[in-house]
Design brief:
By secondary structure, the protein is mainly alpha-helical. The chain contains nine helices and no strands. Helix 2 packs across helix 4 and helix 6 packs across helix 7. The longest helix is centred in the middle third of the chain and has 32 residues. It is elongated. The two termini are about 30 Å apart. The relative contact order is 0.09.
């Protein structure tokens, strides 16, 4: 089911990026999350906050699936679509970066894909809006490293200080995850 967790995050990203519409999202989310809700409730694949937010998203998505959408007026559908997108944005702001860091740390994402997603989700995304100043500092430092990543040895040979390696990025991700964990422990 870990692969399905990844699918959920990618699906939410597609929704808020406008790659798929709300009905297509809801139909897919229905089968990945809502249909398997008993599994997700009893699984350790999702932490408490993830489960809470995804359940909130499910309540809205359930009303926008292609097989239930017809029972709503145009105005109700418009409101539900806006709520769905807003909930997707809230989830992305709270969870996507942390999930991406974990994926990379556990070697579930390679370095180039990690750097591209980090750029897309953090540098271009709306994630800076609601994060703590210390988290922004850590993510900005990581952003600098990911922006300078090169997988080509020739680049490193030409100017080693201009480019970062996968090892440097992995070390920084480990440091950021440790700082986030320590920060969470202090806050609780």
């Amino acid at each position: 089911m870990r692969e399905q967790k990844k699918e959920i995050y990618e699906l939410i990203h597609k929704l808020i990026s406008g790659i798929i519409d709300e009905t297509e999202f809801s139909d897919t989310f229905y089968f990945i999350f809502i249909y398997n809700s008993t599994y997700w409730e009893n699984s350790e694949d999702l932490n408490r906050i993830e489960l809470l937010l995804l359940n909130q998203l499910a309540v809205i998505a359930k009303e926008l699936t292609s097989f239930t959408e017809a029972k709503h007026s145009i105005d109700e559908i418009t409101i539900l679509k806006e709520k769905l997108k807003n909930k997707g944005i809230e989830i992305s702001k709270r969870l996507f970066i942390y999930y991406l860091l974990e994926q990379y740390f556990f070697n579930e994402v390679n370095t180039i894909d990690f750097c591209n997603k980090f750029y897309d989700w953090y540098d271009l995304g709306t994630y800076r809006d609601n994060i703590k100043p210390n988290e922004q500092k850590w993510f900005d430092e990581l952003s600098t490293l990911t922006g300078r990543y090169s997988e080509f040895k020739e680049d490193h040979n030409i100017d080693p200080k201009a480019f970062t390696s996968g090892t440097e990025i992995k070390k920084k991700v480990k440091e950021v995850l440790r700082n986030l964990q320590l920060s969470t422990n202090v806050d609780s």
